[in-house]
Each structure stands twice: as structure tokens, then as C-alpha cells.
Amino acid sequence: MSQQALAITTGEPAGIGPEITLQMALGQIPCPIVILADRQLLFARAAQLGLDVGRVAAWPDYDPTQPALVSILHIALATPSIAGQLEPRNASYVLALLDRATQGCVNGEFAAMVTAPIHKGVINEGIHGDGKGYFSGHTEYLAEQTNTPQVVMMLAGEYGNQQQMRVALATTHLPLKDVPAALNAASLTTTLRILDADLRSKFGIAAPRIIVAGLNPHAGESGHMGREEIDVIIPVLEQLRTEGLHLIGPLPADTLFNPPILAQGDAVLAMYHDQGLPVLKFATFGAGINITLGLPIIRTSVDHGTALDLAGTGKADIGSLIAATQLAAQLSTHSFA
Hints:
This protein is an alpha/beta fold. The protein is built from twelve helices and twelve strands.
């Protein structure tokens, strides 16, 4: 395993991000990590939970041979944070964590970044009117920060008998009414190419098999329940098959998430957020991972939210963060390109 550190952004300071990051850092982790957070926030949360943070080093003064050493890259809060209480004035702090981690990954300072959960609503409340525009989520923000024209959001996790489920999205954080218009041939073509390329280069799958969901019930039922399959999805799949992509579908979303069908593919492409992710989270919750494909850097994340009601209680499950960190370490030390 490489000794280059992973950057862990602690996300919304009032949520569970700071404490689950600390709990993971004090346990068994697969590689050196540096925690991006306000130093005093971490100390206060550790004291609240009775955690012994042991020896602490300010980044980059750390010793990768001593895993008990907690390394912190201090970024100051805009205003003090209380567990469970959102504070819009700290929106700029949350974005500063992401900006610093992204910068470090781009310039080679960090091997990859792992992100704890953020709260999109309070970020938008906090940055409203300052010219930064609407914040729709990690995925879109990191694409903008790295000048990446299009990225793909994919969640993954084990289910059943240690089988791997991977679900990517053709559209991400959009109101449902806006999905059909966003589902155009150019975007869908690029999404499938990115998914195929990263399954090869990042996951080492030589010939990825991608199961594609239809948009409408029964995959449109030959146009009787919608024409998106006929007008957009099927022509795109047919064209990409001529380029060598192995694509299955479009299949009705209500039946494709069955083990016999999932076994025929390496990943599923769902057409919108709540078509694919509820199934994956039901099957893998607590150990699921969010991966952003198409970026020039490696980024993984937890598959859950800020859990404000659990913040400061020490009851939050750290399984997803551990899984995300393990995958980031694996992806950063293996190249299949």
C-alpha cells in the first residue's frame, strides 16, 4: 500500500462527519490519512465523545509508520459549531475543505480524497447572494473545480453473498420533472463512455457489462408509456454497441434489480437518482460507497447524510466511511489503464 496520504474532508461540522472521521482515524485504517477540519472542532467533538485523540500532528508533519498518529490539516470554521445545529455561516468552511482537498489531489500532494457528508440546504442558504451560485452536491461541485465537463455518480457496495452491486446515474440531483429533458443522446453517450472507461481503468474490468435501465415504467412498453426509450436510450445503446461497449437493455427498472439479472452485468446505469439508489442503499446501507467517475482525481464518499440527530452521540456507524477509505486506497495504488 502506498504511503501517500488520503485527504478526508469532514463535511458538515454540525453533523456526524467530524466524529466518524476521528473514530476511523483512531482505529485500523488501510493507509495514512490527513483529516481536513477545524482543529478545535475535532478536539471539542473528541472531548464530547470521550475519545482519546492520542498524539496529533499538523499536516504535513506526520509519520506514516505510526498509524496511531492523527494528522490534521487545519481549516478554520467561520463560527463555532454545535453538534446537531446547522449554521449557514459555516457554508464557506465546508467548501474550503473541498477546495483544499481537490487542490491537493490535483497537484499530487494527496493520493485521493474521501468526503464525509455535507448538507446541501445549509450550504445554499449560507452562500446565497455571494456570487458562487447554486450548490447541487459534491459530484457537480468537484466537476466544476476540476474543469471536468461531465462526471458520473456511482454508488457501490456488497450485498447477499458478498456480491458487488454498482449503480451509476445518468442524471443526478435534479427534480423529477426535469429528468426527461436532461436525458439527451449526447449526455447519455458520454455517461456510458465514462462508466465503461472507468470500470476498465479504475476497477480492472477488462470487458465491462453495463445493464441500462429504461426511464419509464416497463421501459416505455413500446412507446405506450413514454418515448424516451425509443427516441433516446435505444439509439444511443445501438450506436455504442458498434464501438464495442457491452450494453444490456434498456430493461424495466422494477425487475432488473434481481440477482439473476444483476449477475449478468458489472454495473447498472439508472436514469435518475431515486430509480437506482434506494435499491442499492437498501441492499448495502452502512457499507455503501459513492464514487465520482470521470474526474482527473480519485474521490470516494460515504453513502449517507449528515445525521444531525446522531451528531455528538457517538452512535453513528462508521462502516461506510471505512469502506470508502479502503476503496480510495485501492484505487490510488492500482492502475489498470
